[in-house]
Amino acid sequence: MCIFCSIINGEIPSYKVYEDENVLGILDISQVTKGHCILMPKRHVANILEADDETAKNLMVASKHLAQTIVSKTNANGVNILTNCKEAAGQTVDHLHFHVIPRFDESDAIEITFNDSNITNLEDIHTLLTK
Questions:
Q1: What is the pLDDT tens value at each position of the chain, 131 positions in all?
Q2: Active-site annotation, residues
Q3: Considering only CA atoms, which of 54, 80, 58, 85 is closest in space to residue 67?
Q4: What's the whole-model pTM score?
């Protein structure tokens, strides 16, 4: 069984910070920043690509509410809401989940960078994605 399903079923203890009938939010044990949480649908689905629209919607709405709570209560200056989808993108648990990570300043223990690439032909990419 997947580790997140075990947490949802109460077989593994966690620090719950959000719960409704469809979504569970817990403190991430790694705490990249103070208040770092994980939100997951209670129904097992591997990742966002495999989620039905209702599951995705429920998770996004819960993410918004939890992010607002975290920013307010921790006095964070911002927040990242992240998901990794499949191993190539860094997914290590095959259960859809969003990281909700409060951000305080540039000294936070997380770095997200977008490096320049040599991909420049936007017309070809546009055609690929829209045809």
A1: 799 999 999 999 999 999 999 999 999 999 999 999 999 999 999 999 999 999 999 999 999 999 999 999 999 999 999 999 988 888 899 999 999 999 999 889 998 888 888 877 889 989 999 99
A2: 97
A3: 80
A4: 0.91
